[in-house]
Structure formats: structure tokens, C-alpha cells
């Protein structure tokens, strides 16, 4: 019986890849999930595991060839061999117990690296199948890694703080339950540099180096065993072409600190999430022409409507009626009139979105994340409240997936929950608009010629002035204000 090995899904909008390296040759015995070859796309490197145990019968796509999604890579002859032959043991040595490698799972679209943040088990501990072994931290989310089998944790390959690639090896579990041979954690192997002579580089990388006129020792390989990939060559070329930047304030050395003060300081490495937040916020300021316009809204009508229907709403839909669904609906209403706020710049083009994927910024112990409520323009008040609540809880628990934080077209940030009275939110690239909500505060207002105490909230719209003019931004915010001060306008689409 033969089994086909095909190109896996490569990621959103990625349709082809280059066969970079074959780790096996025809006639080699392979185990199920053992890595057969490595594919290289424009952005990431993808390892292809064996779908079954047996013998590699034929390689259809050779190194250097371009293949599409689901294309045939190779064929396996099942049953010819269950796994690669083990080295001959000494006569007196007992038969080794079956072991299972713990691998880094798929981390999400375009995410190729993570940091090992916490090991829940130590070498020698007994583990159950699917019991959590460790936690990985990527740029945006935390990923828990379960044990693939029951047994004993016999080796930790990647220690806490180590950087690991998608598909990399984390640890080894012995199915025998016997005590491990190793008693100490092994440090993660340091990445090999491009100067290694015993590693065969990806064919696409060799061509790219020849075209760019650079030597192998000018490139640092990030592939398996330090293998140089095409993306590594592109990075080296870009780094060589980039002019030496002037010393920026952020990169400047710290001012001298008195010894008595230094002794009372605590230095903590920034998490990947915090580093990403810092980088993206600064990139937004450097790229977009960010401008903010302000207004204020009388929240009395929304508060009265909530008080009238909140009990009946919760009883029917099983979720509390909050303010966020009103603001979401009001923004959707305004985006229809001012579509450029729901658009983005792509080179010299403006991409208008005929849908609304609303990002709802949520504060977590690890930092700010923005889960996305997709097609929010088609959802009811109850559906919006349920999804915001569910995604908010999962965000605080670090359980959001990468896909749930991608694709947003507009964002709402509620600083009012922390007591903020006024702020200027920063855009979430590549979006062109973000609405800032703030604290509801009783203030004296003139209503029909008389002074009344009204529950007021300041609103702030930060927008990309490259595609959103001042008139459009002000119009958007006024439409949000009108819809909130008279929610009946939402029903009549006014």
C-alpha cells in the first residue's frame, strides 16, 4: 500500500513554495510524523512530516522545484519499515523504551518563532497524555504544549528563555514510565551560522546568494541545523543595503545611575508581546499621518434604554447588555457614510472594505491585544455582546489564536473602564481609524436654554490623514454621536 505526501496549506494568500531540502532519500525508512522535507515560501519555512510509517519510495518534487498547494511531493510504501533502524546495541544492554518527541506546534500565520516561557514539568516527572508540559510565547499569544503520549519526561531540549522555531524539538517523553537517563535539562542548541561547512543550503538560497553577489559567511542561516534559506539571504541583502541609522533616543545608552539607586532597581526582560506592542505602535506613528478629532456625547438615551430593557435582554439572550454593542453599531452606521475610515492604503492604492471586522482593544496582564469581531455589520446587539464577552475572557487568559487578532478594519478602544477622561488613541496598522471611548461623567450642560446635569463622555477619533480628510473624520464622529444620543436612528438607518 502506498501513501502520497502532498504540499500542506501554506497560509493565507500563499499558493506555492520551493522545495528547499529533502531530509530523506528513496529507500530510507521513515516513522510517522518524521520530517521528510522542508519547503520555503516568501515568508516562512514549512516542514513536511511523514503521514505514515514505511519506506520513502519515490521523490516526485526535487530540491529547487516550485510546487503548489496540495501538489504531490513523494510516495511512501507503508509497512516496509515502521521506523528508521536503530543503532545496534551492546549485547548486555536492555531494549530501549519507545520515546516520543515533543515538537513546537503550528504557531499561526507568518509566525515562525517563539520563546519557551515556562516548563510545568521537570525531567523525571511522570506525565499523562495531553497533560500540559510547557508554555510558549509568540509575538501575540501564549501557546500551551501538551504531551503527545503518556510516560516520563526524559529530556528537555529547549530550556526556559530559549527561542524555538515552528516544528522544532522541545523535549522527549519515554513511554515506559522508567526514570530518565538524563538528570539535567539540556540547553537549547545555539543556531548555526552561515559559516558551517557541513550543512547543505536550500537551492533557492544558493541562487539568491549568487544573484546578490554575497558569500555564504555573510548570511546567518535560520533553517534546520543552520541551513541558509532564501529569506535569510533577503534579510542579509536588506541589512547590507540599509544605511547606518543615526543614534536614536531609544537606542542611546542610559544616563549614569548612582550606585545606591542601581542597587534598588530591578531589570526585567520585555516579553515578546510587549516588544511587539512597542514596535507596532512606533511603526504606526512613523508611517501614518495620525491626527485626532474630538467630540462629546450625552449618554443619557443609551443609559435609559439599557435600564428599560436590560433585564428582559439578559433573560432572553443570556448575556448582559453593555455599552460596547451600542458603540459598535454606531460605528458601523457611521462607516457606511464615511467608508474611507474603514479603508487602508496598499502602496499607491486605497482598499475600501465592503464589510466591517471590528477590533475591540482589551487590556490583559501581558499587555494590550485586539481581538476581532468579524462581519460585525451583520450581527445583532446580542451576538455582538456575546462575542465581545467571550473574546475578552479568552484574551485575559491568553487563549486567543493568531487568526482571532487579524483582519480588523476598524478598532474601538475603551479607556473609560480605567477612568480615562480624555486620550488620543494610536492607530492599529494597517487600519485608518480608531475610536477612543472614555469615562462617563456627570457635567453641567445647557439643554433647551437651561443648565442640566447630564452623563457625558468625550469621544476621540484618531485617523490616517493620508486618506481621511478632516471633513470625513468630523462627519464620522458626529454620526456616532447622533446615533448614541438617539439610538432610534440606528433602527431607521438615519
TrEMBL record:
Indicate, by first and last residue, each region the UniProt record lists as having compositional bias (Low complexity): 181-196
> What Enzyme Commission number(s) does the record list for this chain?
2.3.1.61
Q: Which family does it belong to?
A: Belongs to the 2-oxoacid dehydrogenase family.
* Organism of origin: Mesobacterium hydrothermale
InterPro entries (alphabetical): 2-oxoacid_dehydrogenase (IPR050537), 2-oxoacid_DH_actylTfrase (IPR001078), Biotin_lipoyl (IPR000089), CAT-like_dom_sf (IPR023213), E3-bd_dom_sf (IPR036625), PSBD (IPR004167), Single_hybrid_motif (IPR011053), SucB (IPR006255)
PROSITE patterns according to UniProt: BIOTINYL_LIPOYL, PSBD
Keyword Acyltransferase on entry? yes
What protein does this entry describe? Answer: Dihydrolipoyllysine-residue succinyltransferase component of 2-oxoglutarate dehydrogenase complex
Known catalytic reactions: N(6)-[(R)-dihydrolipoyl]-L-lysyl-[protein] + succinyl-CoA = N(6)-[(R)-S(8)-succinyldihydrolipoyl]-L-lysyl-[protein] + CoA
Stretches the record annotates as Disordered: 181-227
According to UniProt, this protein's pathway is: Amino-acid degradation; L-lysine degradation via saccharopine pathway; glutaryl-CoA from L-lysine: step 6/6
Q: Name one GO molecular function term.
A: dihydrolipoyllysine-residue succinyltransferase activity
Cofactor annotation: (R)-lipoate
Q: Which domain of life is it from?
A: Bacteria
Keyword vocabulary terms for this entry: Acyltransferase, Lipoyl, Transferase, Tricarboxylic acid cycle
Stretches assigned to the Lipoyl-binding domain = 2-77, 99-174
Start and end residues of each Peripheral subunit-binding (PSBD) domain? 200-237
Is Protein transport among the key words of this record?
A: no
The role this protein plays is: E2 component of the 2-oxoglutarate dehydrogenase (OGDH) complex which catalyzes the second step in the conversion of 2-oxoglutarate to succinyl-CoA and CO(2).
Amino acid at each position: 500500500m502506498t501513501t502520497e505526501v502532498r504540499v500542506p496549506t501554506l497560509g493565507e494568500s500563499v499558493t506555492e513554495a520551493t522545495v528547499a531540502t529533502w531530509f530523506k532519500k528513496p529507500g530510507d525508512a521513515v516513522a510517522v510524523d518524521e520530517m521528510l522535507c522542508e519547503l520555503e515560501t516568501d515568508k516562512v519555512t514549512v516542514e513536511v512530516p511523514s503521514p505514515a510509517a514505511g519506506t520513502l519510495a519515490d521523490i516526485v518534487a526535487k530540491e529547487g522545484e516550485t510546487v503548489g498547494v496540495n501538489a504531490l511531493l513523494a510516495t511512501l510504501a507503508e509497512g516496509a519499515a515502521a521506523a528508521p533502524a536503530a543503532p545496534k546495541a551492546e549485547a548486555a544492554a536492555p531494549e530501549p523504551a519507545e520515546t516520543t518527541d515533543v515538537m513546537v506546534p503550528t504557531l499561526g500565520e507568518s509566525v515562525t518563532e517563539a520563546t519557551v516561557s515556562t516548563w510545568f514539568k521537570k525531567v523525571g516527572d511522570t506525565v499523562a497524555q495531553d497533560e500540559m508540559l510547557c508554555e510558549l510565547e509568540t509575538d501575540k499569544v501564549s501557546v500551551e504544549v501538551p504531551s503527545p503520549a503518556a510516560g516520563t519526561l526524559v529530556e528537555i531540549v529547549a530550556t526556559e528563555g530559549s527561542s524555538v522555531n515552528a516544528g522544532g524539538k522541545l523535549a522527549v517523553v519515554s513511554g515506559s514510565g522508567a526514570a530518565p537517563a538524563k538528570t539535567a535539562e539540556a540547553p537549547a542548541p545555539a543556531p548555526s551560522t552561515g559559516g558551517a561547512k557541513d550543512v547543505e543550503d536550500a537551492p533557492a538560497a544558493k541562487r539568491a546568494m549568487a544573484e546578490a553577489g554575497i558569500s555564504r559567511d555573510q548570511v546567518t542561516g535560520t533553517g534546520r541545523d543552520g541551513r541558509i534559506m532564501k529569506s535569510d539571504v533577503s534579510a542579509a541583502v536588506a541589512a547590507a543595503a540599509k544605511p547606518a541609522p543615526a543614534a536614536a533616543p531609544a537606542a542611546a545608552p542610559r544616563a549614569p545611575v548612582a550606585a545606591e539607586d542601581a542597587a534598588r532597581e530591578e531589570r526585567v526582560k520585555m516579553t515578546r508581546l510587549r516588544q511587539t506592542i512597542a514596535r507596532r505602535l512606533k511603526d504606526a506613528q512613523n508611517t501614518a499621518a495620525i491626527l485626532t478629532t474630538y467630540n462629546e456625547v450625552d449618554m443619557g438615551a443609551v443609559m435609559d434604554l439599557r435600564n428599560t430593557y436590560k433585564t428582559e435582554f439578559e433573560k432572553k439572550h443570556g448575556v448582559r447588555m453593555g455599552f460596547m454593542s451600542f458603540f459598535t453599531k454606531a460605528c458601523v452606521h457611521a462607516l457606511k457614510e464615511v467608508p474611507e475610515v474603514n479603508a487602508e492604503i496598499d502602496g499607491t492604492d486605497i482598499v475600501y472594505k465592503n464589510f466591517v471586522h471590528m477590533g475591540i482593544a482589551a487590556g490583559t496582564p501581558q499587555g494590550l491585544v485586539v481581538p476581532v469581531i468579524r462581519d460585525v455589520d451583520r450581527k445583532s446587539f446580542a451576538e455582538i455582546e456575546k462575542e465581545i464577552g467571550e473574546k475578552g475572557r479568552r484574551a485575559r487568559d491568553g487563549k486567543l489564536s493568531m487568526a482571532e487578532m487579524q483582519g480588523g478594519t476598524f478598532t474601538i478602544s475603551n479607556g473609560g473602564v480605567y477612568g480615562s477622561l480624555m486620550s488620543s488613541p494610536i492607530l492599529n496598522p494597517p487600519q485608518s481609524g480608531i475610536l477612543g471611548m472614555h469615562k462617563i461623567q456627570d457635567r453641567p450642560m445647557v439643554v433647551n436654554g437651561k443648565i442640566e446635569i447630564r452623563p457625558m463622555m468625550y469621544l476621540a477619533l484618531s485617523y490616517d490623514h493620508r486618506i481621511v480628510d478632516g471633513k470625513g473624520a468630523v462627519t464620522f464622529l458626529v454620526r456616532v454621536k447622533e446615533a448614541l444620543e438617539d439610538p432610534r436612528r440606528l433602527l431607521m438607518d438615519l
